[in-house]
Amino acid sequence: MSIILFENEDHKCIKFGDLTHDGEVQSNQFLIVHKKRGLLLDCGGYRIYKNVLGAMSRYLPAGALEHIFLSHQDPDIGSGLNLWLPICKADIMICALWVRFIPAFCVRGLAEERITAIPDKGMRFDLAGSPLVAVPAHFLHSCGNFQLYDPVAKILFTGDLGASLEPHTENIATEEDFQQHVPVMAGFHNRFMPSTHACKCWATMVRQLDVEMIVPQHGARITGKNLVEKFYAWVEQEKTAVDNFADDLYQLPSGALS
C-alpha cells in the first residue's frame, strides 16, 4: 500500500506500508522524489524488497535513486541493501558510528566508495537541489540515530520515535485521535526509548523546525501543528525504559548463584 504524504509540481513524499506478513513487525518505508530523482528512507529487509521495489516503480525507477538513508542499524532498516545496491547508484547515508556495520548487510564491494558517514551533529544535504536535513536523534533508540526532515513537505520522519504497532487509524489528525493513540505509542516508547533526558533534549531541538507532520517508521502519522506540539510534549514527559524497567531487569535469574 502506498500513500502520498505530500505532493507539489516537483516534489513528492510517499509512504509504503503493509509490506510484511502477519506476526512480523509492520514497518513503513518512504520515498522522497524531487524532479525525478529519489531518496529511499529505511529500505527495509530482504523479504520486503520486491514489494517496495514494485510500489516504488509507480513513482520512480530504481536507477533514479540518489540516496538510501538509513536512520540506524536495525535489520528492518537496511538489511536489504544487498538487493538495492546492484540496481542503483545511490549513496548510503548512515551515522558514522554504524559505517563499519554496512558490510554485514551487503557484499563489501557493492558499498565501497558509496557511503556518506553522517557526523554526530547531523548535516544538511540536497536531493536534486531540494534541501533535506539529517536531524540528530541519538539514543532514541539507537546510540547512533538520525531522523530526516524535509522542509519542503514540512515532514519530520522520526524513525522509531512515535512508533505504534497497532494504531486505530492510519492518520492521527484530531485531538480525540491523539488521546486514543497515546497508549499505543506508550508501549513501544516505554521499553525501547532509554533516556528521558535525551527525549527532552530532542523536543527542545526539533521545536526549531517548521513541522506539520510527524511520520514514524512503524504505525500512524501525526498531522497538524497542534498535534505535533502535543507529540513533543508527550515525548518530554513519558517515562522511558530506564525509568520503568531498570530495577526489575537488573536481577540475576533464578538459580544463577546455585
Descriptive notes:
- This protein has 258 residues and is of the alpha/beta class.
- The chain has one domain: Ribonuclease Z/Hydroxyacylglutathione hydrolase-like (Metallo-beta-lactamase, Chain A), CATH 3.60.15.
- The chain contains nine helices and 14 strands.
- Strands 1-2-3-4-5-6-7 form a seven-stranded mixed β-sheet, with helices on one face. The chain has a seven-stranded mixed β-sheet with strand order 8-9-10-11-13-14-12.
- Strand 13 (213-216) and strand 14 form a beta hairpin.
- Helix 6 (175-192) packs parallel to helix 9 (241-249) and helix 7 packs antiparallel against helix 8 (225-237).
- The chain is globular, with a radius of gyration of 18 Å.
Report the top-level CATH class.
Alpha Beta
Structural class: alpha/beta
Low-confidence stretches are none
CATH topology: Metallo-beta-lactamase, Chain A
How many helical stretches? 9
The largest sheet, given as strand count, sense and whether it forms a barrel, is:
7 strands, mixed
Q: Please, what is the CATH homologous superfamily?
A: Ribonuclease Z/Hydroxyacylglutathione hydrolase-like
Roughly what fraction of the amino acids lie in strands?
25-35%
Give the CATH architecture. Answer: 4-Layer Sandwich
Cα end-to-end separation = 54 Å
Helix content: 25-40%
- β-strand number: 14
